[in-house]
Amino acid sequence: MVTTSAGILLYRTDPDGKVSALVAHMGGPFWARKDEGAWSIPKGEFDPRSESARDAAAREFREELGVDPPDVPYVELGTFAYSSGSKKVTVFCGDGTGFLASDADRAALVFGEFEMEWPPRSGRRQSFPEIDRVAWMPLAEAGPRLVAGQRPALDALEVLLRQE
Asked: Which residue range or ranges hold the Nudix hydrolase domain (predicted)?
């Protein structure tokens, strides 16, 4: 069964013309000491029979970051399948210039949580943040840090911005 997800990829262009993306480091003990391949576009699962991808992307952004996505025009970048074939994610992008611009803005975020048994086979359940931090990163820096299945969204964003 294929899992369907949707997310929002915010970008901003610095005065020197460099494009950065807002990406989130995945939370929980598995990702705690990882960097490469441990970041994600704020996204989550949805049922396409009962919710549009765009609505799901906004809802998941809000659930994961604890704030509404900025009220800007969004463009659908596409739907990207993970190499495992078990997941596909529809990504929307928007200009996030000025959104979460300071370290204080990002530090004030309240991230959504999930619960799991930890340590494994201990019988104890613990809560962990879905993501533990967000950062604006230049696209070249964000690429290797994103999970592999989401990297094509950065390529699609670059193509879109070149056309504008």
From this structure: 1-159
**Nearest alpha-carbon partner for 100 in 88, 111, 92, 108:** 108
Q: For the chain, what percent of residues have pLDDT higher than 90?
A: 86
Q: Which residues of 59-88 are buried (b: 16+ CB within 10 A; e: fewer)?
A: bbbeebbeeebbeeebeebeebebeeeebe
Minimal CA–CA distance to 92: which of 79, 111, 101, 106? Answer: 79
CA–CA dist 153, 91 (Å, integer) = 7
Q: Which of 98, 95, 10, 90 is nearest to 55 (CA)?
A: 90
Find the CATH number of the domain harbouring 14: 3.90.79.10
> Model pTM?
0.93
Q: Which domain holds residue 70?
A: 3-163
| CA-to-CA dists, residue 142 to 46, 102, 123, angstroms | 25, 18, 36
